[in-house]
Structures are given as structure tokens and as C-alpha cells.
Amino acid sequence: MQKCVSVYNSAEKLIADVIKPGLCSGCGACIGYCPYIKSFGERVGVVHDCRKSEGTCYQVCPRAVTNFADLRQLIFGDEETDPVIGGNRGIYYARACDKLARTSGQYGGVVTALSIYGLQKGIIDCALMTGGSFTGARPFIASSADGILACAGSKYTAAPNLGLFQEALKNGFHNIGVVGRPCQCTAARKMQQVKEIKGERIPLIIGLFCMGSFSPEFYRFIKDKGLDEYEKIDIPGDVNFKKGNKETILPYDEVREYIRASCNICFDPLSELADLSVGSTEYDYGWNTLIIRTDTGAILVKDAVADGIIEIKEYPAPRLPLLKKAVFNKKKRVLENPDAAYLKISNKERDFFLANGGSA
Ligand SMILES: Cc1cc2nc3c(=O)[nH]c(=O)nc-3n(C[C@H](O)[C@H](O)[C@H](O)COP(=O)(O)OP(=O)(O)OC[C@H]3O[C@@H](n4cnc5c(N)ncnc54)[C@H](O)[C@@H]3O)c2cc1C
Known about the structure:
The protein is of the alpha/beta class. It has helices spanning 11-19, 56-60, 68-76, 99-104, 110-120, 145-150, 165-170, 182-192, 217-224, 295-306, 319-335, 347-355; strands spanning 37-40, 43-46, 66-67, 91-96, 126-133, 136-142, 176-180, 205-208, 232-234, 239-243, 246-250, 276-280, 288-292, 310-314, 343-344.
């Protein structure tokens, strides 16, 4: 019997392919183009039928059909890219020079420092960021150094901050930076391709490393455990809650169930499509790992170093195989997951991960 195929490549398909199966990453990219899609905290929902044959919502969703190979080609052209860590023009340790950015930041404060610098240099006039706290993340349009500083620190849930893109345009911003998880960087690259929504007004994408984010149920867990009195959360392996000298450490297994299903099909733990990717070093928490990916990212870093905004040092050679192994294993798991059908990569790349039994 012939299968019935929807002719609506819009909200109806978004519901069928992404929202109903629980695969929404909470990036927010589908919000703001029509009155039918709304976010409720960190949940995204379609509140009315839509019969458009092509909808921006589906086009920009990072969990709708995503040709990762095409997106890479768009950003890196014919440049050779590393199949594991992606296109890069250098990988470094980095930290902010400014003490406030460092102490406010999750690790070395590089994202905060570079975002403020981007604003000061006029590369962006605002950035879509994640404010609030780890007990309640909030999408935020940051258009001042203070606003950016207020967003410092990781919230390990999923604020749909791309949903503020249209609002930022309405508010008169022309160059809208994006700071986000890998799914948000993918969505932002897709948005850049859509003229109707003025996606070309995204000049800078700073991506975070991300092995997974928690569903909103995590907030209830924190509250029930009485952990909401802490100021900061960190996940160097186990889950650390910190306030001054006080610290509570939970085994990761206690929170594993809160990881969003969407993260289990994420092929991109290092934000490969961003201009710059920033993560931890995994052992020195005063520094970040910084991957320079594009010309835009390279120029920003070069100028920021010259102007004393961030300092960088060589990435220790023995760390690279460890990083690559973690990413390789994550990508392999995703390719083995039948729910990752949205992802299109070349057969050559697929074979690299599936035939190569775990050694990157
Ligand atoms: C859900 C999540 C999972 C992560 N997993 C890893 C990991 O496995 N390994 C690793 O090395 N690093 C991971 N990171 C990145 C790490 O926590 C730091 O964000 C990164 O190293 C930048 O550090 P920084 O000191 O420059 O940050 P800061 O200068 O403090 O800047 C942090 C920026 O992150 C943004 N932000 C905070 N929370 C979110 C969120 N939920 N979604 C989108 N943007 C947000 C803020 O707007 C802020 O601009 C993760 C981050 C998140 C949000």
C-alpha cells in the first residue's frame, strides 16, 4: 500500500518529524515568523494548523532534514575539514584578560569577552544569548557589555534564544550575533540562507561545545533536591553545584535521564558550523578550548589577542587524541541511532565512523 505523504513542508511536518517524536532541541529557530508557533518556557509548540507548502519553521529547524555535508560546503567551500572535529584554522587554550569576564564566565570567560569585543568593534549590535540562571534559563537580547556579562555562565538546559531573532530585527538591530549550543549554530546557518527572514543579518556565530542539554524536568529535580540555593553548576564528569566554598557533587547517572532525546541524535558536539567554538579544557577550569573555524572567527580572535581582550596558548598535543576520541564515539553512537534519520552526510563520512571501530 502506498504511504500517505504530507504535502505541507511546514508546521504540520515539523509536528510530525520533530515535535511529536520528542526530538525538538529547544533552539527557538522556528519561533517568530507566524502566530502559530510559540514557546512555553523551554518547550516549543504549534498552536494552530498551518497549510503552507513550504514553511520557514521547517526550513530552519536543526532536527528537520539537515544536509550537514551541504552546510559544511557552504561554510568551508572546498577546504578540507577534519571529519571528527570539523573545519578549523587552529585550536588553542584561551581565556579572557578582563578579570570580571573571567570570574563571571563559566571557565575562562572567552565567550563573554569575545561577544563584548564584537559589540565594541561594531561587528554585532546585539547577541542572542541565554540569561537567567541554572534554575531558570531565559532567552535574552544582549546589546551592551553589562547585558552580555549578565548572561555569563552555563545553564545546562535549553533556552530557545533564536526565537528572539525576529524581535531583535523589530527592535532595530541590524547585526545580530548568535551564541548557542551546536543545534542553535546549525539553525543559525540555515537561517542565514533564508532571505525572507533577513537571515543574512547574522554576522557572527559563537558555538559552545555541548555533549547534551537537560529537559525542563531538570529544574524540578534541582528544586526537589534543594540544590536551587547554589549559584553555579558545572559538569566536568559528575555534576557539581557550587556557592562560595560550598559544593555538592552528584554522580552523572543521577541526571542522565534528563538529557533531551534531541541530544542523543546530535552529530555535532563541537558546534562545527560556528565561526568559533568554545568549550572547557576538561582539567584547567580557568581556561577554555577555542577552535577557530572561519575567516570571521580568525579575524576576531587575531584582533582580540592584539587588543589584549583574550590571551591564547598552544593546545597541548596529548589532549587532542582525547578530544577526538570523545567526539568520534559520540558521532558513531548517533549514526547507529535509527532516530537520527534527519541527518544527511556523505557515505564516505558515514563509513569513516561506522567502519572504523572506535579509533579516531
Ligand atoms: C547545555 C550545555 C552543555 C555543554 N556541554 C559541554 C561539554 O560537554 N563539554 C565542554 O567542554 N563544554 C560544554 N559546554 C560549554 C561550556 O559549559 C561553556 O559554555 C563554554 O566552555 C564557554 O565557556 P566560557 O567561560 O567562555 O563561558 P561564558 O563566558 O560564561 O559564556 C557562556 C555563554 O553561554 C551562553 N549560554 C549559557 N547557557 C546556554 C544554553 N543553555 N544554551 C545556549 N547558550 C548558553 C550564555 O549566553 C553565555 O554567553 C556546554 C554548555 C551548555 C550550555
